[in-house]
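Translate sequence into structure tokens.
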Amino acid sequence: MHTSPPWTLASARTLFDKPFMDLMFDAQQVHRQHFDPSQVQVSTLLSIKTGACPEDCKYCPQSARYHTGLETERLMQVEQVLSSAQQAKAAGSTRFCMGAAWKNPHERDMPYLERMVQGVKALGMETCMTLGMLSTVQAERLARAGLDFYNHNLDTSPEFYGSIVTTRSYQDRLDTLSKVREAGIKVCSGGIVGLGESLNDRAGLLVQLANLPEPPESVPINMLVKVKGTPLADNEDVDPFDFIRTIAVARIMMPRSYVRLSAGREQMNEQTQAMCFMAGANSIFYGCKLLTTPNPQEDSDMQLFRKLGLNTEPVATEQGDEGQQWELAGQLINADTPQYYNAAR
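Result follows.
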């Protein structure tokens, strides 16, 4: 719970308006107070159900309303998901995130989702899902299955939100975050830079996140990936310094949260990514795709980590020794099959 005064739009704007070098210095100081600056948490994201989403999010190629050439795929089999999780762990990921293009999961999906969570946990990895809106009962079921994190982004400020999404309200998103938190699942929630928002909208997004009853444990900051066929395909590029500034302000406003470089890293050179880490980013998605858009290859990430002296953060699990984990996983996973999208290769 909060022990300090809530953030206001004016106080957030004061941070955004600081001279760049002063802001970077302040953000790095805050970062070092709460985290080891040499460690980065590494996650892999797998699209377990792709496309045909009924939502109208203007940035998303998975919406059924836009013609982006994306091939739709039904919910993956549990064994395929766990095989991909094994490969992600072998590639260095400590958290495995599973995303489905839904407005919300249906009752028929829940047993499969629960088995996916249980199987990934058996590998000794942290688990995360993003499935759209959840009911209280669904959140509780996922919590009992062992889900560690649930991702549900706010995207932007309440004021600008209606320009980007009309098929679910801002309050719908806040309600889902509340249900997830009440179920005992950690919250992953952030937003997107480059939607056409103003500086006040960027500040307003971070105010919303920082003023939640408990700030998210993980805050993904995405740079818009412009996809042909979506309404935002021709948006202006985001200035790298504006993106870095957003990372730094997020770090100062949510000092104990992991700030994740998420979508858009494929568009960033090494220098921009390095500045983001200096600004307080300490988590990345690792692998060739984020759901359906490009992401840097693992070997590129490791090369950059070596240049910067960064290391992947280890994860503590409650699953017992390594041998027991892999024995259980072996019982759950069938032979490899080519019929899945591997986010870790």
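Note: The CA atoms of residues 162 and 169 lie 8 Å apart.
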